[in-house]
Amino acid sequence: MSAADTDVQKSPGHDAESVRGAGALLQAWRLLRRDQLGMFGLVLVVLMVGSAIFADLIVPYEPSQILVGPRMGPPSWEHWLGTDHLGRDLLSRVVKGGQVAFMVALASLGAALTFGILLGLLAGFGPQWLDNVFLLLFDGVRAFPVIIFGLATVTLMGPSLWTVVFVVAVTSIPIYARIVRTQTQALKNNEFIVAERAMGAGTGRILGVHVLPNVVGPLLILASMDVPLVITTEAGLSFLGMGVRPPTPSWGTLLNDGYNYIRNSPWPVIAGGIPIVITTLGFTFLGEALRDIFDPKLRKDL
Amino acid sequence: MWLYFVRRLFLAVAIIVVAVTLLYVMIHAVPGDPASVILGPRATPELRAELRTKMGLDEPFVVQIVTFFGDLAVGDMGTDVFTNRQVSTVVFEQVGFTVALIAASIGWSALIGIPLGCYSAIRRNTLIDKITGVLSVGTIAIPSFVMALYALLIFAVWLKALPAIGAGDEGFWDQVTHLILPAFAVGVSWVGYLARVVRASMLEVLGENHVRMARAFGLPERRIVFRYALPIAVLPTITLIGVGMAYLLSGAVFAEVVFSRPGIGALIVDAVDSRNYPIVMGCVVVTTGLFVISTTLADMANALLDPRARESL
């Protein structure tokens, strides 16, 4: 990915100055406001996250309530996105499904970040043999295509929301751990760390006070760029009937229902796909803009 | 050079061994055992014990995994629970369909994506470049199964232009028309991906000294681009495709399910549904193998073409 990174630096229209630290947030916001595509992404993200948070206030109907109205009906004033094969309101199910999607994203990325940072620090700061063992483990986990690994896990643990969280967390841990490891190793022999050690600081203090703050910020940006990946995995597994179980609405199960009736009515499939596209587009555009601003140059290490 | 190849191959084997071991550890760490998973909740203890013995689950863990690798080395991956056929036979019957789909997807997207990236780099900051940029990010962001469903809806259900079910059987052309929609769905985000990477690396190469020298000699721009810059600029795509095999495989799984195509993806989804545990294991091993082989080949091709890459291992 190094080629793409250098392109970002050279590309005109954005300032070469890079922003560091939380104190520069205001400046980052100013840079972001100049980036049209980034702002567009932000609007989409706020729309989707907001509708997920306030889902219970927004939904016009109870998402799993079977209504008396038309089945597989087209969009109308009563049902903005139409109704599904049981006559349930699709808009309500889409909004409620967003809640599931973001919950999975939050839980799995949180777990992946926590374990990724811990393992990365261990690999980066520990002895050489431990580093080698961890690297081989990371490569081993990353050798599974995510969906295939997910399907194998579902066979063992049964389909559920937590299986999805487990799959996403396990497959993302190596990515974050590798980044933390590389950063830690780069910092380890820096003069200020050596000086700190000479003054008698223990490994815990060095890691907690000096290494961690340098690592966490960029990692959070990367994690936010991975939200689309998580949401896609959840929706994908649910689409295959291996993720979130009905009657809990999920964008994936909406698509699955729609797929079964695709020759009768296009509306369920259209309604299930739109939120996924909006969310992934929003996070991608926003993430690209944020990466241009903060430029962590981290993807190289993958 | 040969030393690099040998070390890279050794690493590939190590990764496969680690991956399969991890899978095995996971199977044992998870509550419940494969025998009860296969037999379902109503199985009698005797039946379960019988199947456990048959599958070798009574042996100690180390013995099991050594046996598994020993069998794997001679191509034996156990037998299908329901039909008693060899897992390797069942899996390799299907693998061809998946490989054909992946090859077709990456083929058409490279044919369009690489020239598009080149064009964007040369005509930088024109309207077409900007549109390509936005479209690339857009197509990369859209997951392949959503693309597959929308493609199915538009081209097969509404326009009725292309077949939507199966792989086709009557001759070559029939199979090709059955490939179009799935390959479109899997490959479309790769057009954007490849265009972006080629554009970035082309811009980098065009700024290098040897290109400036070629300009100073007064070579025509066309010759500079095609003869001197392009061969270097497409190098990163090799690595990208190698590493991207995981995404291609995932995309193929969805495309096969959506378009009811035979292949590894359809096989594993069916096997998970029916808890056909040996088949699931077989599919995981084969896809993991495919992924590791493709990254290894990509690294080797890179080492052949770019001497600097050899020193990194």
Model description:
The complex is a heterodimer of chains A (302) and B (313). Chain A is built from 13 helices and no strands. Chain A is mainly α and 302 residues long. Chain A has a single domain (22-294), classed as MetI-like (MetI-like fold, Orthogonal Bundle), CATH 1.10.3720. In chain A, helix 5 (90-125) packs parallel to helix 8 (161-188) and helix 8 runs antiparallel to helix 11. Chain A is elongated and about 75 Å long. Chain B is an all-alpha fold and 313 residues long. Chain B has 14 helices and no strands. Chain B has helices spanning 2-29, 34-39, 45-55, 61-73, 87-122, 127-141, 144-158, 171-206, 209-216, 221-233, 235-258, 264-273, 277-305, 307-310. In chain B, helix 11 runs antiparallel to helix 13. The mean pLDDT of chain B is 82.
Any chance you could write out the topology, listing elements then pairs?
The complex is a heterodimer of chains A (302) and B (313).
Chain A: H1 2-10, H2 25-34, H3 36-53, H4 55-58, H5 90-125, H6 128-142, H7 146-157, H8 161-188, H9 191-198, H10 203-225, H11 227-239, H12 251-260, H13 267-294
Helix pairs in contact in A: 3-5, 3-13, 5-6, 5-8, 5-10, 5-11, 5-13, 6-8, 7-8, 8-10, 8-11, 10-13, 11-12, 11-13, 12-13
Chain B: H1 2-29, H2 34-39, H3 45-55, H4 61-73, H5 87-122, H6 127-141, H7 144-158, H8 171-206, H9 209-216, H10 221-233, H11 235-258, H12 264-273, H13 277-305, H14 307-310
Q: Tally of extended strands of chain A? A: 0
Poorly predicted segments of chain B: none
User: Average pLDDT of chain B, to the nearest integer?
Assistant: 82
What is the approximate shape of chain B?
globular
Tell me the domain tally of chain A.
1
Helix content of chain A: over 70%
Q: CATH first level of chain A: which class? A: Mainly Alpha
Q: In percent, how much strand structure appears in the residues of chain A?
A: under 5%
CATH homology group of chain A:
MetI-like
Note the main sheet of chain A. Answer: none
